[in-house]
Design goal:
This protein has 330 residues and is mainly α. It contains 13 helices and five strands.
């Protein structure tokens, strides 16, 4: 994958901001990826798949379920994140230091920020919705302090400060997993470099999306429907990865698509280990994840411990796809 100079500079800036050391994977050049790609394209039909068991719900229900899941799985650790409403802190900084402060003011600026940022429970971060979007997705919106002041030292040391969590699309059972997904992004953003590889950045969030589906699966096979939805998104990522190579933008589409594909592969392997094991192992995996959220471990420690790797996760996904094919799509 070749990036333009502008794309590479944007990626370096972003990686400095969030503490990633590299983006790499040889997987996309192997026969394993080609086999996974072909299985997706041959198996999942192009016509829209209907999810007949997915129920519409209120945003309050989403927040309640999401909060319960997060509290259950993060017991005993600090789940507060740096928060500022709108861009109040940026306005204060501009008044105090000007729009383009000198580089020798960096330490003073960082001290001011660390002194004045607020801490808020991640479950209490404002949640905004846009139900008019037909595609379901979510994102954590960070405040972009000093957009005009680009400096590697500043980006590296500036804490990630959250304004809100935004969810788009219909509000239904799937939204509960999306909300948990985004709250885990907010928590991992506290610890820069929680994973060294940018392509792994979605792994824990997708894994917890799957855990949410598993814990909600009381009366029907919601877990399988939620996983099918994630597989459909992966198919889109595979197709978009190829078109992205010919449409260069500052949004780094080729890198983003690789990130979602790779992270879903790893999350699938980790969830397979989690769901098929005893409560003792489930608790152990949960505790290891909390060590990552607390900054005491990095994600790669968990992947190594439970022998989670790209090829194995891809084989599990291929098996799932073939299972869905035999049972048929609704």
């Amino acid at each position: 994958m070749q990036l333009t100079e502008n794309e590479l500079n944007e990626l370096k800036r972003m990686m400095e901001t969030f503490g990633f050391k590299y983006y790499k994977s040889a997987y996309f050049l192997t026969a394993d990826y080609k086999n996974l790609r072909n299985t997706f394209l041959d198996t999942i039909p192009t016509s829209k798949i209907k999810f007949n068991n997915i129920k519409i719900c209120s945003i309050n229900t989403v927040k309640k379920i999401g909060k319960n899941i997060l509290i259950k799985h993060t017991e005993g650790i600090d789940t507060k994140v740096a928060y500022t409403p709108l861009d109040e802190l940026e306005s204060d900084l501009i008044v105090k230091f000007g729009k383009t402060p000198e580089e020798d003011k960096i330490d003073e600026i960082l001290n001011y920020i660390n002194k004045h940022i607020k801490q808020k429970e991640v479950t209490k971060i404002p949640l905004t919705t846009n139900i008019n979007n037909i595609h379901q997705n979510g994102r954590v919106i960070f405040t972009h302090l000093y957009n005009h002041f680009q400096n590697p030292k500043y980006n590296k040391n500036l804490p990630n400060i959250i304004k809100e969590i935004d969810i788009e699309g219909p509000i239904n059972d799937f939204t509960k997993g999306i909300y948990v997904h985004e709250m885990y992004h907010a928590l991992t953003s506290k610890n820069k470099g929680y994973t060294q590889n940018y392509l792994y950045d979605e792994t824990l969030s997708i894994f917890m999306e799957k855990v949410t589906a598993l814990e909600m699966d009381k009366t029907y096979s919601f877990e399988k429907e939620a996983n099918l939805q994630r597989l459909l998104l992966t198919k889109d990522d595979i197709l978009n990865l190829e078109t992205a190579k010919y449409h260069n933008t500052n949004h780094l589409p080729a890198v983003e698509m690789q990130k979602y594909i790779m992270s879903n592969i790893l999350a699938t392997d980790l969830f397979n280990t989690y769901s098929k094991n005893s409560n003792k192992i489930k608790n152990e995996i949960n505790n290891d994840i909390n060590q990552v959220l607390s900054g005491k471990k990095i994600l790669e420690d968990i992947l190594d411990k439970y022998e989670i790797y790209e090829e194995k996760g891809a084989k599990i996904m291929r098996k799932q796809l073939k299972t869905y094919t035999k049972k048929g799509f609704k």
